[in-house]
Amino acid sequence: EVCTMINKKYGEFLPSMESAEHLVAQVEGLASNIDLLKAAIENEVQQDLSTAVAEFTELKQQLERDTLILSVLKKLQEFDAAIQESSSPLLKEQYLTAAQQLEQARSNLRSLESRRGFELKVLKVLSRELMVQTQNIIYHLGEEWQKLVVWKLPPSKGSSSLEAAVLSELHLHTVPLQDEDIAVLQALAVLGELHYKLKPFGQLLLQYILKPLILHSSLEPVPEEQPHVFILRFRSQGLAMDEASPMEVFAKIKLVFEVLHKCLLNVPLEQPGGGRVTLAELLGELIWEELSDCLIHNCLVNSIPTNSSKLEQYKEVIKSTEEFEKALKQMQFLKKDTTALLRYARNVSSHFANKKCQDVIMAARSLMTSEIHNTVKITPDSRTALLELPDPASGVHSPSSPLDDGTVAVGSESRLSPFTLGLPSCRISCSVQQLLELAYHTLQEATTSTDVCCVQLFDCVRNIFQLFCEVVPTYHRENLQKLPQLAAIHHNNCMYISHHLLTLGHQFRYRSTSMLSDGAATFVDLVPGFRRLGTECFLAQMRVQKGEILERLSSARNFSNMDDEKNYRAAKKAIKQVLHQLRRLGLVWQDVLPVNVYCKAMGTLLNTALAEIVTRIAALEDISAGYADRLYSLCGIMAEEGPQVFTPLLEEDKNKKYQEEVPVYVKKWMTFKQLMIILQANLQEIVDQWADGKGPLAEEFSAAEVRSLIRALFQNTERRAAALAKIK
């Protein structure tokens, strides 16, 4: 059974093996054929294929060169044709056709020049030919433009004066506008030359027409239409003292643009880059910025109100500006919705504040640099520049009424005099009074303005006072140093300003709903600076006067050796000079300084002189009887004439009161009087005056000083020794 199975399996396997052997034989034959074919390809076909590819590449490159040459030749042919075709229309004055052909030629030339690696020397020649032809047509178009737009200008060019404007004329030979005229304009646009024609036209329009109409209110445009020409002339209505309103200026300029739009600017033109545009748009782009600047700075600026009550009326100007711009947009002169001109007009509140502040500062500076010596008398009951204060207790924000008896109610019972905290009588500069009035009026203006404007005006008033502290001491420095009267007036000015600054902000607290009403608006912080400014100036003048007094007394030769006639005359002259100086000061400060300041100042200077005399005499070591008499005589001059320098008031009889009060203002007066007593007293009288250190002499001199004077006045005797022993 096993053998049978093996034989069966062998019988089944044998055909498969024979089939596989046959298949192997076929594969081996096929591989042999492939090897033969491969060898044939490598030896024959590959070589032929490489040759074919090389030939194809060469033919392709040749085709590309031929195509490029053909393209270049075609462009050259088109360029030549365009140049040729532009000559004939030019001769027939068909400028638009000629321009279009030249533009086509320029396009072809650009295409040729843009090809890299392919440069022809002929291109330079062609470029020159195109430039010549282009300049030729531009020249003819320029002549045609000059026929369309004719300017007749005055001999003296370059001026926007009234005289030049009256002599200027613009002739537009475009009535009606012919197709030939439009063709000229379109040809200029095609060649890109329209800008170069409109730019000088716009500048002449600004210089001889538009700007003169803005600057000269008496100038009016006079349009005149004739057959085939429209003439724009100007006439002056005489000398106009007032500046023209913006409405009038806008109307004149609008009339000019309407004429230009009707006769010239409404022509639609094709742009070289594509799209349509009118001459009005092109001209607007060239001149609008300069025109609007001129309108702002020479028209709208001048129309800004100087008073907040007139701001409401300015709405007419804003409306007129809007209508003016709307008209220009309808004529296509403007494209923007809102220009700088309209923005300026609408921002009137800010401009009003800026202009008001500028005017106020300029007026204030003018007052600060005016003469100080022009004065006005201020008294406690002066009401100059003061506004009525409202009554805070009433709860009603309205001015309170003064009581019939001239007093002001405080609470329910107490009453204050109207002169309480009042400024004493003195003289101040008229300019300072006007400066305070300016400040009050500006703050009054602020109370009726918008919040932003109110803040600006309040800051402006603060700037006025800060500017005063910088300008006045600098500008008037030399006079303030040299002239005592001006120093006194400046002192009064500063005190007058500081007096008002105490209540300046408070006075407007109930007059506004703006920032002034919240108590933040105050000037109190400026008060110490003004007081210091006035005080330092006057004290500097006092130091100068003290120096002069001491210098004059230095020529008295220390009051020594008065037995010598020369020394006596020198001392007497020095005292006379000091008294003369004091009298002169008394007169220049008379009715200028407040009485209390006057008396203190004169008392201080007289005290300086007396203190120096006392010091010099007390230092003497030997005084004979005759010497003492002469010293007494000199001191008598001072004692008699010194009080007479106190003349604070113009009325002579009223000055006696202050002359009698000299001891109040002159600290060394009683010392000086005691010195005079010593010079004429005997030893017993001096001892009596001393009274064991309790007498009037002891109040003015020390024991050492009295003993020194006794030794100088009396000879060394037992009586002198006894007297000296009692002075302790």
TrEMBL record:
Main location: nucleus
InterPro entries: Zw10/DSL1_C_sf, ZW10_C, ZW10_C_2, Zw10_middle, Zw10_N
GO biological process, one term: cell division
Keywords: Acetylation, Cell cycle, Cell division, Centromere, Chromosome, Coiled coil, Cytoplasm, Cytoskeleton, Endoplasmic reticulum, ER-Golgi transport, Kinetochore, Membrane, Mitosis, Phosphoprotein, Protein transport, Transport
Annotated ranges, domain ZW10 C-terminal helical: 573-727
Residue ranges annotated for the Centromere/kinetochore protein zw10 C-terminal domain, each copy included: 423-551
Protein name: Centromere/kinetochore protein zw10 homolog
Protein species of origin: Polioptila caerulea (Blue-grey gnatcatcher)
Protein encoded by which gene: Zw10
